[in-house]
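Checklist before submission:
- one chain only
- standard amino acids only
- sequence pasted in full

Submission:
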Amino acid sequence: MLFTQDRNRLRLFYCEVWERYRNNLPLQPLEQQIGEVISMHPEYHELLEDREAALGMEANPELGESNPFLHLALHVSIREQIGSDQPSGIRKIHGRLLVKLGDAHRAEHRMMECLAAELWQAQQDGSTLDGAAYMRRLERV
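Returned file contents:
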């Protein structure tokens, strides 16, 4: 379910995972990871516990508003990259940031900034993510 282009289905998936996580119901490994990421973001709990609000939520980046669903997805993406060490070397960068920042959540956030910037650039260019540019950006953190 996580791999869909349907915004509403994806948002409902996050809501359902959060409900099952909170109620200690069985989860698939990726769902468990999503539940853990959500648990680290209490500012999103109320939204994810109200399906109508989640479906209707609109973020306006021009006003400094962030999209919680994008934020959570970036966390999951970073964790998947670290777990598989893809792109090669990202696990080492994560380890260095853990030492530097002393906190896994903060390290993920710094890495997410790089991923988001490279995704934005790819979107502007109408291309795919440039893995080499992404790794160079991560190395500078």
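Reviewer check: The mean pLDDT is 94.
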